[in-house]
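Usage

Read records sequentially. Each one opens with the input sequence:
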Amino acid sequence: MALKKGVDVKPATGKLGILLPGMGAVATTFIAGVMAVRRGISKPIGSLTQMGTIRLGKRTDGKTPKINDYISLAQLDDIEFGGWDIFLDNAYEAATRAGVLDQRLLDQLKDELEQVKPMPAVFEQAWVKKLNGPNVKKGATKMDLAEQVMDDIKRFKAEKGCDRVVAVWCGSTEVYRKPTETHATLASFEAGLRASSDDIAPSQIYAYACLKLGIPYSNGAPNMALDPPAMVELARKNSVPICGKDFKTGQTLMKTILAPGFKARLLGLQGWYSTNILGNRDGEVLDDPDSFKSKEVTKLGVLDHILQPELYPDLYGHFDHVVRINYYPPRGDNKEGWDNIDIVGWLGYPMQIKVNFLCRDSILAAPIVLDLALFTDFAQRAGMHGVQEWLSFYWKMPMTPSPELYPEHDLFIQLMKLKNTLRYTKGDELITHLGAEYYD
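and closes with the structure output:
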């Protein structure tokens, strides 16, 4: 949507409820992390909203406030947590089972974590073949299930005394499917819900329920939850911010850092081979080829969009890009990404770069969940609705306001767009790095 320069943003008063479909490793690492930061036990490293700054005016002006001092964001002490999961474990039990965080930290937070209990989830085995659990909703139709989710949200908001609610999908990757006529319009989608169409995934039911209630929604998996025209139509109709998809964490984060550097220096690319070993629940789900296909689509699109082979055919016209994910239980949440990059320099001479990223997937994802929750709440209070392209910074496959627009994947351009959007809402000058007044 078009945004006025200098926006009257409603203040972030009262409590903010953050609802999480999927309360596994990512969600519980996020919840426990916020609780630890609130108690002064740990620092919110990796969170732009908590630790990031924003420059205002000329470099010589020396104005660089923290982002959470510059704009009106919900405070961590004002957050309430809720969510859904197919397993009955409370947040303490689920975090212990996930094995991401040190047990001594979890034990310090035990009393508070145990209060966060999952509501019964919308689940269909056909969409996530490798998982099954007992805490699942039953309904006469998929519309009935959507209405149950809406009832859950209303009850959570009332019981926790929340003024506002946002939702961030932290659940598993569903199998890959293309949109059908069911997804073409809001009317056809609602007819599909009433008819329990096989084309409608559980993630789409959550998205529909939230958007129907005017709740901002972020899609943290490569699922086709928000992409279909029906969901964009509903978001616009109810003036709700939406964004996605698939948290940009490990290997893809590295690609969006490295590829812009190769392009900036006009170094050619012959091939980029990526493989991962991962042993958590996400790895188990992605062991199914249909679920992996969803992830592969978001991972493979990054390089083409950054390198623009149609503009640089001699450099990027014929490179091989391969992505593999291997389920290896002993590794748990500690994912290892191996990248072999074959680049080309002056006069066509070949060179190689090897990257071995031993990352912690949920540790990288948790601050993204926090930032998305706070920024989409800010967007709602600022009157920004529809696709929030300025939040592309957080996604493997960012959504765009229209199908004709290609997504921006360059991490540094994404960050500039995000910060300029914040400046714009405050009526401050955008930073373009042009003009003599910006030089020391």
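Summary fields computed downstream for this record:
- The chain has a mean pLDDT of 92.
- Residues 15-247+362-426 form a domain with the Rossmann fold fold (CATH 3.40.50.720).
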